[in-house]
Amino acid sequence: MKNEAREQKIKCSNKGHMTVSGVMIYTFLGFWALIVLFPFYWMILTSLKSYSAYNGEYIPKLYTLSPTLQNYADAFTAVPLGRYLLNTLVFTVLTTLIMLAVIVLAAFAFARLEFRGKNAAFVLFLSMMMIPNELVVITNFITITNLDLRNTFAGLILPSVTSVFYLYLLKENFEQIPDNLYYAAKVDGTSDLRYLFRVMIPIAKPTLVTVTILKVIECWNSYVWPRLITDDADYFLVSNGIQEIRENGFGRENIPAMMAAVVVISVPLIVLFLIFRDKVMEGVSRGGTKG
Amino acid sequence: MMDRNSIKGSLKGWLYLLPALLFLGVFMVYPLIDVFVYSFEEGYNSASQTYFGVGTYNYAYVLRDPYFLQAVKNTFLLVVITVPLSTGIALLISVGLHSIGPLRRFLQTVYFLPYVTNTLAVGMVFMILFKKTPYSDGFINLLITWFGGKSVDFIDGPYWAKMSVLCLYTIWVVMPFKILILTSALASVDPVYYRAARVDGTSKFRMFVKITLPMISPMIFYLVITGFIGAFKAYSDVVALFGTNLNAAGMNTIVGYVYDMLYGDSGGYPSYASAAAIILFAIVFTITCINLLASEQKTRR
Amino acid sequence: MEVILRDLTKKFPGRDRKRRSEVTAVSHMSLAIPDGQLLALLGPSGCGKSTVLNLISGLLQPTEGRILFGEEDVTSQPPEKRGIGLVFQNYALYPHLTVKQNILFPLENLKGKDRPGRDEMLQKAKEAAGLVQIEELMDRKPAELSGGQQQRVAIARALVKRPKVLLLDEPLSNLDARLRIQTREEIRRIQRETKITTVFVTHDQEEAMSISDLIVVMKEGIVQQSGRPQEVYDSPQNLFVAKFLGTPPINVFEAQVRDHMLCIGDEAVLRVGNVPDAAVYAGVRPEGFLLREAGAFSCRLERVEVTGRDISAVCGHTASVNASVRALVGTQGGEADGLSAMPEGSRVRFDLLPHKVFLFDRETEERISFEEN
């Protein structure tokens, strides 16, 4: 960060000759920004066109003069979009909360407590970081099916909780908290659990926020597992919901209404991102990959 | 400092670990072992939980299945096209971003947007942009005909068209992560090197090749490896463009094949799915190893 | 509260797992700290002094031996049951809590009937803060405080439960020189006011000498000497203690005793009544030199250092163990005037004050006492 600032200062100092190369760079960057933003523009635009207007345009227009919110109304009434959103919300909140509880306790054990077999357990956790989800999803599917948990929240949530990487991030953060704080607390008669809640968690809050945001993004966008484990539309999440809408949606191919649904399910995460921009980007650059 | 290894202390440590161990054991360790078992059990029936033999038949079946071969071909094409392209473009964009002052933060935010959007949802937007219907040729075809080209259906049309829109969408999706990593790598290069080089009268291009690239090469390498792994596991972006019946569209990927074998229109064969998943893992593992070896050779030289 | 350490030993498992070697940090230490006294554990780093502190606090369990607080054997009690206050070298303040919350923290841990009401807690916190004079900082976060202020908060937090024993681990080492002197006086004052038995660990002998009632000098886990600071300074029991105490440090010479005379180099410098002939180390405190034209001891003047309060002659001597010999010369009496006029390399002569000279056995480095004249 500091380097960046310094760099910028140097740049500014010879800003005098904003040259051909400068123009080219901006053009190129602008072009990519256009590619990134255009699909977003298109989905909002389409969602505002009326069904007849959209289908009447053999040559699609880049603007609309008669925007309508009818598509949004359709998206919530003709298909259970509200239900999908609610399901996703429940799924995201519960999964994230359970994950937080699990990794906070485990990270505390790894970072703070001393016990026999700790290193072996940690190696096991680390090695699990390398296992692709595709390998374990098959058995999980069968496990959940045999437990009769298909089309339940338990079936959706339980296998989605494990996040070894976030546990690892949190453990690293916990370890940076000076040992002396722990000894000071011990001398004062603080129990381990109280120390965890009163001292470690507040200090590690930035990391916890990052982990939470990353997990929320992951949950909100998850598709594969929900698709495998639910076939009852009452339990669809937004990803499956949108696929369902596409294939059997509004009784006919209603693209504007579909786009309205797409806008609705995209907005929450974009808002979350714009609020926590730096947290999200920092968290992702610390090792998140999509999916 | 605290005295350790007392029985009570050990018990407490494991107690704190217990929830994590349970989740990990039930949903990762056990499945990991189980998937190998499944892949060798011939004719496993998930309803009756019976099988009638042990052997490599599942692998043989999968490797002879034309759908699987098609999926392998699609996946490899996708990997070979998108990994170098996306990494290259991301590098260009990051260098561009690094060299500008105004608008940098804004552009960084914009470029990151695809990361936080639902792959399925935005894929649908790509679908309608590229799709040709009786009512409309779609926006992209409009552009193509403007420039004097011939319109083509990218979603239900010829293979190359479908593959190119898939590659484009994949690149669009993976770009934010790569730009983010590369811009922070570029920012971490100490400007003192640039100043030193400028004093020596080094040209900008030479500076980039001789200073910047070597300094950020570990990050580029990291991106290539994660890119390979990610692209090999492509699935949901394909579904977004072509729907769930990927075999019919001829656009299935290896992961898609695994899920289809497990569940869905052609589903109910966990043994085949396991075999395919293990083949996928073997491929990814091999390629990662080759990558690691290659980079080691390079640094040794 | 009197604190008694009885034959205390602490061994740590060695770093090297395979060899299972053990490291003895503290070896058979016995010590009684009288009620209400301030005791300094003094020694170079790695001498086991912090281990002793942690044994007293209960954060470590001894391998052998007992710890008694008054009549009560606390050896197997956990830290929180012992009624101690502990101040860490880096203060260990909770960074996310305000000063007030930090001081309240130990009280909030109390359970059942021990737990005071909210008002009483605040009252106690205020008292503790008053004792270290930080009342006006109560709502700040530790990061907004200077090092000295953080130190005071740490002490207030340790005192708020009215501990029977206060333990301070290198409490001054993170402060700059000026604050250090100020803070150590502060610690002294607080200790006097509260009359809490206090143990503090330091590697700085000046710090230890200046404020403690008793000092204990340790080396490699073994107590070398303990006693009142001046006593130990004036009568070190071995070469290590003699070298460790005093700034500037003691001058050590390789010397011989011949015919009841102490000989340094070729010069017979001091009569040492009862000592048989032997090779010895002779330690001479810098203030043990008297500038005399006909002095018995001579050395080659290298330079004269004037540091405001006093003047020291820095000399070379072939028998010196140290790189140079340092003699403090009083500024009064004009005796130093001649010194400054002397050219570099000339010989200066001193007489030695017998009670500032110590003899040590060459082999054991133990003190050999001698009769003056």
Structure description:
The complex is a heterotrimer of chains A (about 290), B (about 300) and C (about 375). Chain A has helices at about 1-15, 20-50, 50-55, 70-75, 80-110, 120-130, 135-145, 155, 165-175, 180-185, 190-205, 205-220, 225-230, 240-250, 255-275, 275-285. With about 290 residues, chain A is mainly alpha-helical. The model of chain A is unreliable at about 1-15 (pLDDT under 50). Chain B has helices at about 5-40, 55-65, 65-100, 105-110, 120-130, 140-145, 160-185, 190-200, 205-230, 235-240, 245-250, 255-260, 270-300, and strands spanning about 40, 55. In chain B, helix 1 (about 5-40) packs across helix 13 (about 270-300), helix 7 crosses helix 9 and helix 9 (about 205-230) runs antiparallel to helix 13. The model of chain B has no long low-confidence stretch (mean pLDDT about 85). With about 375 residues, chain C is α+β, with helices and mostly antiparallel strands. In chain C, strand 17 and strand 18 (about 325-330) form a beta hairpin. In chain C, helix 3 (about 100-110) crosses helix 4 (about 120-130), helix 3 (about 100-110) runs parallel beside helix 5 (about 145-160) and helix 4 (about 120-130) crosses helix 5 (about 145-160). Chain C is elongated, with a radius of gyration of 25 Å. At the A-B interface, helix 1, helix 2, helix 5, helix 6 and helix 7 of A face helix 1, helix 3, helix 4, helix 5 and helix 7 of B.
CATH-scheme architecture of chain B:
Orthogonal Bundle
Q: Give the low-confidence spans of chain B.
A: none
**Main sheet: strands, sense, barrel of chain C:** 6 strands, mixed
Strand content of chain C: 25-35%
Determine the fraction of residues in helical runs of chain C and give it as a percent range. 25-40%
Mean pLDDT of chain C: 88
* Percent of residues in beta strands of chain B: under 5%
Please write the CATH class name of chain B.
Answer: Mainly Alpha
Radius of gyration of chain C: 25 Å
The secondary structure category of chain C is alpha+beta
- The number of distinct structural domains of chain C comes to 2
For the largest beta-sheet of chain B, the strand count, sense and barrel status come to: 2 strands, antiparallel
How many β strands of chain C by DSSP? 21
The radius of gyration computed from the alpha-carbon positions of chain B, rounded to a whole number of angstroms, is 24 Å
- Helix-strand topology string of chain B: HEEHHHHHHHHHHHH
Number of domains of chain B: 1
- Identify the overall geometry of chain C: elongated
Q: Give the helix tally of chain C.
A: 10
Oligomeric state of the chains in view: heterotrimer
Biggest sheet strand order of chain B reads 1-2
Greatest interface and its residue counts? A-B, 105 and 102 residues
